[in-house]
Predict the structure.
Amino acid sequence: MSQFNCDVPFSADFGAIIEPLSILNLDITSSLGLACSIDNFDYVDTLVGVTLGPLFFVAFLVVIFGLEVAFRKYKTKRLDAKLKDSKFYAVPEDLVQMFSNREIQVFRRTFSYFDEDTCGTADFADFDLFEAKAELSFGDYMYAIQRARAEDRQSELSDFIGATEVKANARQGEYIIFTLMLFSFIILIGTSSTIFEYFQCESFEEIQPAVSYLVRDYSLNCGSSRYRSFVAYAVAMLFVYPLG
């Protein structure tokens, strides 16, 4: 409400409530003084800067997220190699042929989530799948998995593996999603207002022939080729911000 200026009269009490929020109306482009430092700077430049800036920031976050995913895969690969070479994570010989290499890799990684010091023992007391045993070695853990398979408890085993993976990766990447959502919330109204104001022209009938200028920037003639060339861009940005 504090960012939309539609000349709507509010009660004194309501006005007092939203007045402290007027700080959100800060026009960063104007605050930078670009009109003084860049020749022929006008509202077209403001429109382009206000709409492209957030897109570059989002692209930056996407790149960071991609790098984080790649780094997470790299760490997982190193962890798998480390566990494979650890004597504490050796698979009992009579079970080696019962599981694929991919399954053993997943079971080792899952076990390591509970084995914080990588000493080869972990607490599974909270899981009925392992008969509520307080601690298991990796070998006993693998035997318990084999028994679960033999007893046709495959769905229960899959739920355990899936829940463990989700829990281990729950917070990875969350801060980027939070930053993106918060940023979108903050810039949505201000950016949308900038786009809408690009279509607000005032006509001066006193001049013959009549001319119209942009209300936010009277140096910009709404009939000029510069203004008309960015109308399509402004329409496209409507689908990116207020509508998208």
